[in-house]
Fold these 4 entries.
Entry 1:
Amino acid sequence: MDPAEKDAIHNERFVRIICIGAGASGICLAYKLNRSFTKFSLTVYEKNPGIGGTWYENRYPGCACDVPSHNYTFSFDPKPDFSSVYAGSNEIRSYFEDFVSKHGLSHLIHMSHLVTRATWDEEKGEWTVEAKNLATGQTVESVCDILVHATGYLNKPAWPHVSGLENFKGIKAHSADYDETIDLRGRDVLIIGGGSSAVQILPAIQPIVRSAKIIIRTPSWMLPDISTETSTFTSHQIEEFVNKPELLMALRQENERTMNSIFTVYMKNSVLQNQAKALLKSATKHILREYDSVDALIPEFSVGCKRVIPSGFRFLRTLKEANVNVIHSSASSFNSSGCITEDGQYHEADVIICATGFDTSYVPRYPVIASGLNLQSEWSRSIMGYMGVGISGFPNTFTLLGPYTPYSNGPTLIAAEAQADYICSFIDRYQTEPIHSMTIRPSVCKEFTEQVATVMEKLVWTDNCRNTHNNSRVGSRVPTTWPGSTLHYLEAIREPRWNDWDFQYRGNRFAWMGNGVSQAEWDPTTDLAYYIRQHDDSPHLGRKARNLAIAKSGTRPARELHRQAKLGPVKAETMAYGEVGIEANEMLIDQD
C-alpha cells in the first residue's frame, strides 16, 4: 500500500497562533506567517480602532519620526513617495495601513479588541486568551498553541507622579494620548518635559498660543536642523524614487551604512563619543549664545544616554521667542489653575500638556498566567526577558520588541523583522515535530541578564541619566536595550540557540521522521536529483564564514573601522555655525 502524505518526514500539523497588537511588529509577524506557512490560523487582537500601534496613538502637534523616512520601513517594502526626510505620524501610519492592505492581512486583525487575560493550560499545552470587544462590550475567548505579545513598550502614557494633577480644572493632555480637537489658539500652555515629544510640540504650537512655558528637569542632546531645502522631497525627487527604484535603494543603503558605522559612539569615552560630545556642545552653545541659561540646556551625561533629538535646533531657537519661557526645574504639585515647581514658582495655565513619555516597565497590562505565576508580578520585581523575544518560565509564548531589543542601536523595524523570523523558526519546529511546549529556561535568562549587566557598564545607557531603558529612574535596573549594535543583534539572533530552551514532547520525540518518505517525494514538481551540482553552492559550515557571506564581505571598499569623518573636529567647527544638516542627523539619532 502506498504511504499517505501525512506519513512524510516533517509533516505539518495545524498550529493556532494569537498575536496581541497590530503595530509594526504585529503586522510584520502576520506578513511572515502568511508568506511562509500554510496549515495555521492567526488572530491578531488590537485594542485601537486602527493599526499602527504607537503611530496610531501619537498624534500630538509636530509628531514625526526621528529616523530618516526611507529607513523607517520594512527592509523588503520601501515607500518611494515619502514627502519629507522625517515623516509625520499620519504618513507613517498610512504606510502601515497600506502594508496591511497590500499584503492582504486585514482579515486577520480584530480591531477594538482589548486583551484582558491570558492563561496557560499545561495539560492541554495551549493558551486561552480573553479579549473585550470595545465596540459591543462583549468578551470573546480564543485558544491558541502559540501566543505572541506584540504590544511594544511605547503605548502606555506615563503621567507625572505629582500630587494634585487631578485637581487641575483646565485642559489636560498627554503627548501619547493627545486629543486633536484641542484648540490652542490664544491659550496659555504649560508643557511638562524636555524630551523628544516636547521638542516637537513646542515649535509646532508656539506661533498660535498666547504663551508657552516649558518645564525642563534635565536637558537632552540636540542635533542640528535639516535645512529647509533638504527637509522635504520635491515632486521631481519623489518621481525619481518611484520610477528609478535603484536611486531609492542607494539612499536607503547609504543611510543604513552610516548609522551602522557609529556604534562605538555609545561606548563611554570612545573616540566617537568624545567627538560627538564636543561637536554637539559647541553647536548648542553657538545657537544659544544670547540665551541666559545656556549651560542648563547642555547635558553632563554621555551623548546617547538619553535619546539624541534630531532637528533640535529649531526647538532651541523657539526657546528665545518672546512668548516662550523655560523653567529649569520640575513640577512638585498642581492645583485647579496651574503648577508649582520645585523652585517655589507658581505657573498658571489654560492647558497642560504632559510630554512625559511612556511607562517602559514592560509589565503587561493584562494578567499572563502560567504554572501559578502572573507575568505582571514577575516582571514588576525583575525583568527576566531573553533577547527581545523570550519570557522566562512561560511556555509557548514570545515577545516582539520585548526587553533587550536594540531600540537605541539602530532601526527598530529591522529588529522587529529579525524577531519575527526567530519566532517563525520556533513555529516551524512546533508544526513539524510532536512538541507539547517550548520554554526558555530561567537559569538561561539569569545568565543572559548577568552578561547584559556586565557589558552595560561600558555603555552610555548606564551613565547618570534617566532614560526609557531604565524606566526613567537612574540605576533602577539593568538597561533593557540590547548591549551591542544592530548588526551585533542580527548576528546574535539569526540562529536560535535551541539548548537555551526546554522542549517537552507528546509521545516519541522522533515521530517527526514519519514512515520513510521525504517532502520532495510528495511534490510532483520537485527535482529528485536536486543535490547534484556543477559546483559547491551550499552554505558555509563555519559560523563566521556564514555571517560574513550574509554581510556580503568583499563587496565594498575598505573603510576605517570605528571612525566617522562626519564627526571629526573639522565638522564640529562647521556645525557650530549651523551649516550642517542631514549628515549630522544621520549620525546620532536614537532609533526608538
Entry 2:
Amino acid sequence: MPHASAGEQELDTLAAGRECFVQHAWADCYEALTAVDRESPLGPDDLQLVGLAAYLIGRESESVDALARAYQLLAEAGEAERAARCGFWLAFELFNAGEFARGGGWLARAQRLLEDAGRDCVEQGYVLLPRAHQILGTGDPATAYAMFDRAAKLGERFHEPTLTALATLGKGQASMELGQTRRATALLDEVMVAVTAGEVFPIVAGIAYCAMIIICQETFDLRRAREWTTALSLWCESQPDLVPYRGQCLVHRAQLMQLHGAWPDAMEEAERARERLSDPPGQPAVGMALYVMGELYRLRGEFAAAENAYREANHWGHLPQPGLSLLRLAQARVDAATTGIKRAMEEAPWQLARARLLPAYVEIMLAAADLAAARAAAEELAETAADLAAPYLQTLAADSLGAVLLAEGNGKAALEELRRAWAGWQQIDAPYEAGRVRVLIGLACRRLGDEDGCEMELDAARWVFQELGAIPDLARVEALAGKVVTEAACGLTDREVQVLRLVATGRTNRAISTELVISEKTVARHVSNIFTKLELSSRSEATAYAYQHSLV
C-alpha cells in the first residue's frame, strides 16, 4: 500500500484539527492546526480556530497572535464583518487580561471597519458590548442597559446565541447596578443555562461564571453560587484541557472552598488567583486573593503569615478588615481589635458592606465587654438579613444574636438562636462556622446547668476543628473542656490552666467569666495567680508561654 504524500498527511492533520474543534478537544485542535501552520501558513478560518482553542487552554499570547494574523488576512481580503468579529475577540481577550490599551486599539479597528462597510450585520452587536461596559463603568447603568438590550436584539435577529448571551450578561450586571437584584440574578441564570447547555461558545463560560459568582457574593446568595459552581464544574469535566477560570472568579471560588471546609484547596486556588492576577501587574483583585490567604492562615493559627498576607492585600488596595481585627483579637490585643473594627465600620459605605463586618464587630465587642454595642450590631445584622432574605445572612444573624444573649446571661434564649444558627450552617455546609456555634451551644448548656450537654457539644466542635486544622479554636475548646494538663503547667491548678488557655485565645476577664460561669473577680484572682506562679507580667507574655509550652 503506497505511503501518503506530505501534502495528503497535511490535509489529514488539518481535517483532524478541525474535527477536534467541533468535539471540544481544544488541546488536540491547537496541536494539530499549529503543526500544519509550521509547514504552510493557515488561512483566516483555521487561524481563528487556533486563536480560540489557544485561549481556551490558557495560551493567551498564542491566541492573540493567531487572531491578529486572521484579522489581517480578512481585512486585506475586504471581508470587513468577519475581520471586525476577529477584532472583537482580540479586544475581548485583552480586556479580560487587563491590557486595556491594546484591547481598545483592536476594538477601534473593528469599529472603523464596520463604519466604512456601513452594513447592517451581527458584528454591530459585538462591538456595541465593550462600549456598553465602558458606560456602565462610568456610573450610568440605565444607558448601559439600553445598549446591552440593543445588542441582545441583534443577537436574536441574526440567530447568534453567543452574542445574545454576552448581551444578556451585560443586562444582568447593569440591573445589579440599578438595584434590581432579582432581575440581575434571573438574567445571569439565563446565561448560565445557555453556557452549561452548550448553546454558546465556551469562551463565554469563564466571564459568565465570574459575573454570576460576583453578584452572588455581593448579595450573600451562596446557595446559587454553589449550585452554578457545581454545574459548571461538571460541564468542564467533559473538556479536561479547558481553562475557564482566569480572574477574580478564582478568588470567589477560593472563598466558597473555604466556607465548605476545603481549606487546602482554598489556599491552592487563592495562590493560583494571586499568580494569574499578578500578570499583567497592577490588577487590584490580587489584593482579594491575598486577603483570602490571610484568612486561611489566621484560622489555622499561622498568625505571622496572616499578618503578612493582610498587609500585602492592603498594599494592593484591598482593605484587610475584618480579618486583621480578628487576628488582633486572636493575639489577645483586644484594644487594637476594637479600634480597627470600629474604624472599618465607620468607613463602610453601604448596608451590604456593613453586613460583612457586623459578625466580627459583635465578636470583638463581646470580647471587649461592650454588650450594648454588640447587641446593637446583632440587631442591625438581623434587620439586613430580613431585608435581603438571604439564608447565609440570616444564619449569621442568628449566630451573632445567640452569642449576645449568652453574654447577657440568657441561656435559654441563646440556645434557641444558636440551634437555629447551627441548622443554618449545616444546610449551607459550613463546617467551621457550625463548629464555632456548637461551642456556644455548649456554653449555653453549661449556663443552664447541663454539663453533660456542654461536654458533648464541645467534643463535637473539637472533632471539627481537628479535621480542619483550626488550631486557635481547638485551643479554646480544650480550655473550656478543662483537659488534663502537662508538666509545663508549672504548678497551676486545672482551673488556672483553663483560664490561661482562654487568656491565650484573646478573651477578656469578663468573657472568661461568662464562658466558665464563674465571677469576674474569681477570674482576676486566677490571672493574678498565673502571673505570680509563672513569673509573668502581662497577658501577651501569658499567651506566649501557653503556646511555647503546648498548653494550647
Entry 3:
Amino acid sequence: MSDQQRGAGKPGQGGMGPGSFGFGPGRGGPAGMGMPVQKAKNFKETLRRLIGYLKPYRGKLLVVFLTAVLSTVFSILGPKIMGEATTELFEGLMGKINGVPGSAVDYGYIADILLVLAVLYVISALFGYIQQYVMAGVAQRTVASLRKDVNEKLERLPLKFYDSRTHGEILSRAVNDVDNISSTLQQSLTQFITSIVTLVGVVVMMLTISPLLTLITIVTLPLSFIAIKAIAGKSQTYFKDQQASLGELNGHVEEMYTGHPVVKAFGYERKSVAKFDGVNERLYQSGWRAQFVSGMIMPIMGVIGNIGYVLVSVAGGLLVLHQRITIGDVQAFISYSRQFAQPITQTAQIANIIQSTIASAERVFELLDETEEVPEAANALAVASPGASAGTAFAPKGNVRFEHVKFGYNEDAPLIADMNIDVSSGQTIAIVGPTGAGKTTLINLLMRFYELNGGRITIDGTDITELKRGDLRSLFGMVLQDTWLFNGTIRDNIAYGRAGATEEDVVRAARAAYADHFIRTLPEGYDTVLNEEASNISQGQKQLLTIARAILADPAILILDEATSSVDTRTEAHIQRAMNTLMEGRTSFVIAHRLSTIREADLILVMNQGAVIEQGSHEELLAQGGFYADLYQSQFSGRRQATIDAV
C-alpha cells in the first residue's frame, strides 16, 4: 500500500477522501476553483440512484424548491423598489435646488417604500428559514437511510471482501463519502437552486431597467471566464502536487507513530525527521503555490467586475442625462450587476461540488453492489439453546467431518485440493504445519467465513450450509493469538462472550482463566476501561481476558490459536489447566506452532500446501518419521542448542 493510499481515506487524518479537512474535490481555494475534481464514471446512472433515495421526500423537496424561489424573488425585488425611493429623494432635492414651485421630498412615500422593503425582506427570510428547515430534515433522513444501507451491507459482505481491501478504503466510503453527500444535500443543493433563480431573476430585472446596460454587463463575462479558466488550469497542477505530498506526509506520520518504539530502538529518529522535513517542504512549496494561484481568482474577478461597474456607471449617467432612465434605476442596476457575477461563480463552484458528490455516491453504490455472502438456506435449522428440548432445532454434540473439501481464495489457484477429516465429539484436534499451509483457512471454512469450491463440512451429520451463519458461529468459542478487545470496561469485554451474563458469571470465568487476581489489582478492578488499543494492560493480560471470554461463552466447539503464546511459563501452566477443564467433553481445534504444547492431543493433523499429509497421535507421528517428526526434531534441537549456548 502506498503512502498516498495509507494517508487517504482515514477519517480525521486529512487524507484525500472526499470532504476530509475541507480539501475535498471542488472545495480547494477561493470559490472552490483550482482543486482537481473527482468525476464519476457513470454520472447519469449514479445520479438516478441517488435521486431514488430522495423520492420518498418528493413533497418536501417541492416545498424546498418553492420556498427557495419565493425567498429569492422577494429578495431580488428589493433593489428595484429601493431605486424608487432614491428617485423620489433625488427629484425632490433637485426640484428644490432648481427652485421648481411645489417641489418637496415626499417622505411619506419614502417611508411607505421602506416599509414595503422591510416586509419583503422579512418574507424572504421567512421563506429562506422554511427552506433550510425542510431541507435539513430531508438531507439528514436521506443520508441516515444511506448509512443504514451501507452498515447492513457491510454486515452481509463475506470475509474475502475485507481481506482484499484496506481499512482506510472501506472507512473512506462508509464515512467520508457519505459525509460528502450529506454536506451537498444540506447546503449545495439549495444554494444551487437559489443561484439559478437569482441569475434568472437578476437578468430579467436588468432587462426591464435597460437592455443596453444589460448588454454592457454581459460583455464583461467572457473576460471573467477566460481569467478563471487560465488560473484554474495552472492551480490544478499545484493542487495535485499538494494532494500527493499530503498523502505521503500522512502515511509517514502514521508509520512513525505506530512504529515509534521500533524507530527509537534502531536509532532512526534523525532519518525519520529528515524525511518528514523533506516531505513537509514539498507540501509547503506546492501548498503555497496552489493557494496563491487560486487566490488570484477573486482579485482578478474583482478588477473585471469593477471595469463593468465603471462602464455601467458611465453609461447609466449618460442615460439619466438624456432622461432615458431614472437615477434610482441606475442605482438598482448597479446593485443587480454586483449580484450578477455571484450566482455564476456559485454555480461553477457547486457544479464542481456536485461532480465530487456524484463520484462519492458512485463509490458508495459500488460498495452496495458488492457480492454478498451466499444467502441462508430457506429452511435453515435453528440451534437449540442450552438446556432446551431438541425438538426440530439442531442440538450440537461436536462431531465434525470434512468430506472432499476443495477451496481456493482464487479459483485459478486452489489451496485445498481434497481434504478429508473425521473428528469425534470431545476430541482435541491439533493442527500443525509451516506458515501458509492452510491451518487458519481450515478454521475459516469450518466457521463458514468462506464458501467451499467443492465438497462439504458437516457437524453431527448436518451440512453447515443448512444452519444460519449466526447460529453456526454461536457453536464456537475462539481464543486467537491476535487478541481483540473493544473500548469498554473489563467486565463488558468478558461478558461479550455470552448475552445476559451476570456479575457472578463474569467473575467465575475470570477466575477460571486466572485473570481475577490481576484484574483486582487494577485501580478500578472490573470497571477498568480499556482504551482503543487496550494498551493500558499487557499483552499477556489481554490474552487472559479473551480466554475468560471464551470460558464464559461455554461453546460446543473450541478454537484455540496459540492461546498461551503471550503469557509467561507459570501463567501458561495455569491456563493450560483451565483449558483442559474447559475442553473436557468438547471438540477442540488447536492451531499449534510450539509442538510441545500438543503432545496430549487426540489427533494431530499435519498440513502442508493446503492438504493434510499426515494424521495421528504424537507418538504415532514420531514413529512414522515423516514431516511431523522432522518439524518436532527441528524445534527440539533448536531449544536444546539454545540451552547449551546459554550455559
Entry 4:
Amino acid sequence: MSTPDTLVAAFQATAAHDPAAVALRIPGGEVSYTWGQYAAEVERLARALHGLGVRPGDTVALMLANRPEFHLLDTAALHLGAIPFSIYNTSSPEQIAYLLGHAGARIAVSEEQFLPRLRASGLELDHLLDVADLDALEPDPGFDFAASWKAIEPDRVVTLIYTSGTTGPPKGVEITHRTVLDNAVALQHGYAVHRGDRITSYLPSAHAVDRMASHYLQMLYGTQVTSIADLKTITSALTEVRPTVWAAVPRVWEKIKIGIESLLAASPDEEKRRAAAWAFEKGRAKVRLEQAGEEVPAELAGEYELADQLVFTTIRTLLGLNELRYAFSGAAAIAPATLEFFLAMGVPVVEGWGMSELTTVATANPVGRTKIGSVGVALPGVELRIAEDGELLVKASYVMKGYRGDPVKTAEAIDPDGWLHTGDVATIDDDGYVTIVDRKKELIINAGGKNMSPTNIENTIRSHTPLLGGIVVIGDNRPYNVALLVLDPDAAAAFAAQHGLPDDPAVLSKEPTLQAVVQAGVDAANAQLSRVEQIKKFAVLPGFWEPGGDELTPTMKLRRRPISEKYATEIEALYA
C-alpha cells in the first residue's frame, strides 16, 4: 500500500479504516474520541476556523496542555492548508509576543490557565479563543471542506518548531508534509508503528518529538494516543496505558530508575532486596558481555532467564512497560549507567539522535543491537559526513525547508550542496554507529588547551549521585573544572524524610549529611574521569530547577549561557 503524499490524506484514510476504534483519550477514559468522532470534529472545526478567516498559509497559534483538543485543532488547521504551531506552556508574555509576531499569527487558541499570559503579551490578535468555547463555534456551511484538503501540496509547511533560543532569539524551523512523511517512512524500518499501538502524549507539543510520535505518526498508522496533561503523573499513567511504543527524555528515564531503586531499597523484605540485587548483577553482567561483543555463557544466560522470571517481569509490569516493543530516549544524551540499568531489566530502550531541522530522528540504535554511548546508525535515506573540525553533517530528504523568514540563517545551516551543519561534534565507528561528543559551541577548552565534553562529565556525576537533578560543569578557559549542582525534588524529599531533615532545598543543600553524600558521588565520578576532566570544587545550589525556567528549556536541556550569567557569583567563588 502506497503512502499518502500529505498528512491530511493520510488522516482521512486512517479515520475511514476503522471509525469505531478509539483514537484519542485521557487517563481514565473520561474524555475519548473514536476515529469517526475525531474526523467529524476536525471537519466541524475546520469549517469554524475558515469562518473566522483562516486561509491557506495562515499561522494558527496553540498554547495548550497535552489534551485531545490539541489534536483536533491542529488537524483541523492542517485541512485548511494553514500552519498550526505550538507555544511552550512555560513561555513568558515577552516570549509569547515574540513568537506570535515572528510567526505572523492572527488567531490563537489556549485554555484558562494560559490566557492571562497571552493577553499580557500585548500583541493584538484577530481572535483569541478559549478551548472551553470550541463547541460554541459556528461552522461555515458553505465551505468546501473536501476540496480544501485535497488541494494541499506535499511541500506545504505543516508546522513551525521554534528552537530553544539558548544562544539567541528562537528560530522557526519549517517542516513540510513531505519531510514528515519521509521521516515517518524511514522510522518504519526498524521502529515500526502499527494500527492500535498505544502511546502517550506528555512531552510539549511545541517539541518535534511529541508532534511526530503522538500526532503525525498517528495520522499515518492509526495509533491510540492518551494525552497526559501533567508530566508529573506520567509514571502512574503508564500502568493504565501500558504503551506498546514510547519515547522519553533522559530525565524521565532517570527519575523512573531512581523510583525503582528507592522502592527496592525501602522494601522491608530482606530476601526480596537480595533477589533484586542478584537479578541486577546478572542483568548488568549480561549487558556488559553483549556490549563487548562477547558470547553470553550458558550458565549466565540461564541465571538471567531466572532473574527475568523472578524479578524483572514483575518490575516491568509494575511500571506499565511490560508490553513495550521498544522505547526511544532522545533530546539529550542519556547517562550510560541509566541505559545499562534498563537494558539489564529487559526494557528495550534505544537511544536516538535528531534535530528539529531534521524533522525528528536521523540516527538510532537498532532494537536489540544497542551500543551504549552511541546514538546508533543512520536511518534509511540519511547520509552522514564528519567535517574537518569534527562537526556532523547530514543530508536527507527530511531536512527542513528552512528557518521562517530568515534566508541568511538558513544558508548558514544548509550549505549549497545540501548538507545540514548540525553543530554537534561526533565520531562514526567502522559499523556506522554515531557517537555525539557534544555541541560544538559547548565543548570546554580549559586554560591548558584541553578539549572536554561537559555532557560526558555531567552524566558520569549523575550516574553516581541520584540526589541531583541539575548538573552543570564549568571550565572553559579555566585552570580546572567546577560544577553547579541542583537537587532533584523527589530524591531530595525522600532523602530528607529518611534522615529526619527539612525538605526545603535552601536548608537541605547546606546539610553536612547531604553534602557528604554528594561529595562521595563526585569522588566516585572523578575516579572514572581523566585527571583534567575531574571536578575540583562544587556548589549545591539552594533551589530546584524547573523545565521552562531560567536554567532549563521546556524539554529539560541546560541553558548554559544563562546559567553562567545568573550564577556568576557562585562560579567565581569556586575559583577564588
